[in-house]
Design brief:
heterodimer, A: mainly alpha, Helix Hairpins, B: Helix Hairpins, 2 helices
Amino acid sequence: MDALSTGTLSGAQKEELMDQVKQQIAIANAQELLTKMTEKCFKKCINKPGTSLDSSEQKCIAMCMDRYMDSWNLVSRTYSSRIQRERNNM
Amino acid sequence: MSDIDFPSPKGADSELQDFLIQEKQKAQFQAQIHEFNSFCWDKCIEKPGAKLDSRTETCITNCVERFIDTSLLITNRFAQMLEKGGGMH
């Protein structure tokens, strides 16, 4: 951080820092998705937790994950086009 | 993730600052999508099927749009309340 506050980062150091920031954000994003997905799909697919995940529960979870991603992508598209529209109205 | 405040040290690299501001915005955008998706999923999905049917898709789209409408409406009305000096005592 010392190099950051004194502004003496070399080009290569800066590039490395930027890559690290991007990577950390991507990891945080993936973790959030994973946590939410697990929570939502557990709720939808496991009604009465038994001694193991049976095959219908496993199938449900796989399908739920795929739908959760579909939904995430749809929300993302809807939200970005809304932001675009609001920007054009300003 | 949305609460990061970047310090602006003297002589900080402006390219780096621009980069961080941009990345912060992207992160906030994604955090917002996680939130929308979470509660619209609860509202719109009964049982996850082989694909998102068109009714569910419409529900999710409407859910996001109406939430933003609600947020804007409440923000505006709240601002009016504050202007009138009412509401908060």
